[in-house]
Amino acid sequence: MSLSDKDKAAVKALWAKISPKADDIGAEALGRMLTVYPQTKTYFAHWADLSPGSGPVKKHGKVIMGAVGDAVSKIDDLVGGLAALSELHAFKLRVDPANFKILTHNILVTLAVNFPADFTAEVHVAVDKFLAALSAALADKYRLTHHSGASRASANRGTSNDKAKVSDAINKISNNRKGFFFMF
Amino acid sequence: MVEWTEFERTTIQDIFSKMNYDVVGQQSLARCLIVYPWTQRYFGNFGNLYNAAAIMGNPMVAAHGRVVLHGLDKAVKNMDNIKAAYAELSVLHSEKLHVDPDNFRLLGDCLTVVVAAQLGAAFTPEVQAAFQKFLAVVISSLQRQYH
């Protein structure tokens, strides 16, 4: 479902309004997800405290919402713009893409709770479409069997900066398959 | 048999006892038709659904939203056997209305958003979990008689 100019404008306008609270929104959305969908906790078994409002949840909520904000600025080319993040999720984190929908839902609920007047039905549909497109871009590098072929194909879509990031990611993965540490 | 904790029971009864069914019904159904426009396929005779403003102001949408919420009320009043309480409704949605059950989830998500907006901070993660568990049971019961 492609984003119309009206959708993009609505997303940018809402982002402008909510970005000062981005960290809190990220933390709350993550906290809701871990509580309402306990199966998502399996990805964070290494955290000391998984309760809403805990240190690790707040910190990671900030990381997530930072990436969402970055995606807003790259709204005209999400697949290219999120190529490196997609590599991360596909090859290192190996998050089941079904979970992207779950986090999306909890971001929407968080927006409804905190910005009820701004989160009209029209804004809701634009944001839902945007987060769906973001999720698709995040899943783009999944199930690619030939890494080098994949990086060439995706490099054609991104900027030269992204091409460098992607080939960098591929080099790191192929150089150090066992227990590599992906810096992000 | 679904096991409900005390907290879950109290939360569900509390939310629905304080709810304005007319407002929440209209808001949830309208939002569903706007956010997931393919759901409009079931409402061909509802007149003007051409844009968000038309949907929000449509009296047939409002009336039907009310019907849906009162249907939910049946589950609120029969929490220990929603499956039995919804057997007829399930047959209706499958055999007569021919509604794709995925739509129940879409409407449920819109209802969650509307209730979240109404309750604000009181819609804590724990309250959200109880509410969504309730909706999941309702949706499962509505799907039960599909063959």
Automatic annotation (TrEMBL), chain A:
GO terms for cellular component: blood microparticle; haptoglobin-hemoglobin complex; hemoglobin complex
Keywords: Heme, Iron, Metal-binding, Oxygen transport, Transport
Family named by the database record: Belongs to the globin family.
Domain Globin: 2-143
Name of protein: Hemoglobin, alpha adult 2
Gene3D superfamilies per UniProt: Globins
Domain of life, source organism: Eukaryota
A biological process term (GO) from this entry: hydrogen peroxide catabolic process
GO MF annotations in UniProt: haptoglobin binding; heme binding; iron ion binding; organic acid binding; oxygen binding; oxygen carrier activity; peroxidase activity
PANTHER family tied to this protein: HEMOGLOBIN FAMILY MEMBER, HEMOGLOBIN SUBUNIT ZETA
UniProt xrefs under PROSITE patterns: GLOBIN
Automatic annotation (TrEMBL), chain B:
GO molecular function: haptoglobin binding; heme binding; metal ion binding; organic acid binding; oxygen binding; oxygen carrier activity; peroxidase activity
Superkingdom of origin: Eukaryota
Keywords recorded for this protein, A-Z: Heme, Iron, Metal-binding, Oxygen transport, Transport
PANTHER family, sorted: HEMOGLOBIN FAMILY MEMBER, HEMOGLOBIN SUBUNIT EPSILON
Keyword Nuclease part of the UniProt annotation: no
Family: Belongs to the globin family.
Positions of the Globin domain: 3-147
Cross-referenced Pfam families: Globin
GO annotation, cellular component aspect: blood microparticle; haptoglobin-hemoglobin complex; hemoglobin complex
Keyword Iron: yes
Single GO biological process annotation from the record: hydrogen peroxide catabolic process
Lineage of the species this protein comes from: Eukaryota, Metazoa, Chordata, Craniata, Vertebrata
Protein name: Globin domain-containing protein
InterPro entries hit by this protein: Globin (IPR000971), Globin-like_sf (IPR009050), Globin/Proto (IPR012292), Hemoglobin_b (IPR002337), Hemoglobin_oxygen_transport (IPR050056)
